[in-house]
Amino acid sequence: MVSITSIPTFLKDLWGRFHHDEVAGLSAELAYFFLLSLFPFMIFLITLIGYLPIDQETVISFLRQYAPGEAMNLIENNISGIIQNHNSGLLSFGIIATIWSASNGLNAVIRAFNRAYDVKETRSFIVARLMSILLTIAMIIVIVIALLLPVFGKQIGLFIFSAMGLSETFLVIWNAARWIISFFVLFLVFSCLYYFAPNKHLHWKEVFSGAFIATLGWIIVSSAFSYYVGSFGNYSATYGSLGGIIVLMIWFYLTGMIILIGGEINAIINSKREKKLT
């Protein structure tokens, strides 16, 4: 971790890297790939929900906590269309399309992290693509778990409460803990991303700082942006029917920027550690 006395220097280094590594431009590239991945992923998720004891509204309620209002309207409209044309074949299509589209986004992340660490990609195209696909699959699994914990958390707590005869205090603790668990699931996603994506051998402890800041930053920025759009921003008045897409792209842009900033933070810490060793 960075000491208090070095925080100004650390922030100066981060600001310099932000411009040198073109984080803003790469964030826009990630936002594009995130958008391409979104609706195939929604097809996969909503079709999968048809085989699980969970309803559409529960998932939408969870997404609504983070996604801006206009973006949620766009997502809900597409979900409704998917459900009306429900087809088991959509599950296979959704899986393939999601993995391929999202792996392109992960490829962009890998290039950005290699740039942050000042290393070249020496892994073959096949290895790099397989790495992107494996990370994509892992992220999808963890994201699904992160969705299921808030959704089924209450039912799980009630089951444990009744089966073991615990006090009502347990339910209060459990209701708080399941959201904390979701935070750590997101933290795990970012940690794995920061550890495996760069073409550089790293220690796990070297990626935890960036992963923690990225997790906390994503939750805060998503909630703040959602509040801003709902309270002050009226993108539909400016962009008309494209308002939802614009809001979604801005949200993805901020998400991509937070992910890349977390990688830059880890790269700075790694650079300082290596300088101390030399």
TrEMBL record:
InterPro entries: Virul_fac_BrkB. It is a multi-pass membrane protein. Keywords: Cell membrane, Membrane, Transmembrane, Transmembrane helix. GO terms for cellular component: plasma membrane. This is YihY/virulence factor BrkB family protein. Signal peptide: none annotated. It comes from the Bacteria. The chain crosses the membrane at residues 30-54, 90-113, 125-149, 179-196, 208-230, 242-269. It is found in: Cell membrane. Pfam families: Virul_fac_BrkB.
